[in-house]
């Protein structure tokens, strides 16, 4: 029987590529994100391979998160795999120059949004006594870099929550693992730099960054391990990147 995977942030980047690879590997998919047009385009594309359902909500909106997930039809209600991927950086400023709205966005989306979605789905997994949660952290959740302050803090929180979920959900047979990418060329920097495409493109110049598909491929590997194998924590960097700040650029 096909497993069901719910992917947050499926309208772009890592989430979209993950939905694509899982759909082609016999998973039914629940696509989540705010941009409905993109959700519908991806649903059309992936319906050639599998059953697809879309849920459009903002992970910051507690009520919308619970109402959306509780509205899933019977055939999509047993969620086997949750990919907690929705998130972004907003701004790259020193702590003294930080923008409060950027701080709110990062804490509300990357931390509280991940918690709301998890809280809406975990009771189902507990009842099933099975499930697999993948939390997308970052190298920024393992290290801190100049001007990364609040984004790094939000991803350190994801790292802590990943460990905490693994402990608390251990009695229920639920697998929990974190994947922590370095630089992946997606819309991430466009969002961080508020649509400044030139500045965003510069982030990936002079070295070969990861592609969203590289991370999606690893997510598929992680979720397709036999049940007794839980890949708990993975850091994945471009070969040119040695740490959050050390990059071999030409
Ligand atoms: P993208 O900007 O390409 O994708 C971000 C996704 O998150 C989009 O689908 C977006 O959907 C969704 N999202 C953002 N805000 C919200 C919100 N408020 N409610 C619901 N969905 C939201 O970036 P990436 O694919 O690169 O990022 C995915 C994850 O990977 C993030 O958690 C990011 O922190 C992490 N990461 C990225 C790295 C990189 O270098 N790119 C490296 C390490 C980690 P929509 O706008 O339609 O709602
Ligand atoms: C995204 C990678 O290095 O910009 O999490 O923080 S980085």
CATH homologous superfamily assignment? NAD(P)-binding Rossmann-like Domain
Which shape, going by the Cα principal axes? Answer: globular
Look up the CATH topology: Rossmann fold
- How do the strands of the widest beta sheet line up side by side? 3-2-1-4-5-6-9
State the name of the first-level CATH class.
Alpha Beta
Low-confidence blocks of residues: none
Element string (H = helix, E = strand): EHEHEHEHEHEEHHEHE
Largest beta-sheet details: 7 strands, parallel
C-alpha-based Rg, rounded: 17 Å
Estimate what percentage of residues fall within beta strands.
15-25%
Organism: Flavobacterium weaverense
Family: Belongs to the short-chain dehydrogenases/reductases (SDR) family.
Keywords: Oxidoreductase
Pfam family, one: adh_short
Q: What attributes does this structure have?
A:
two-stranded parallel ribbon; alpha/beta; 250 residues; binds 2-hydroxyethylsulfonic acid; binds NADPH dihydro-nicotinamide-adenine-dinucleotide phosphate; Rossmann fold
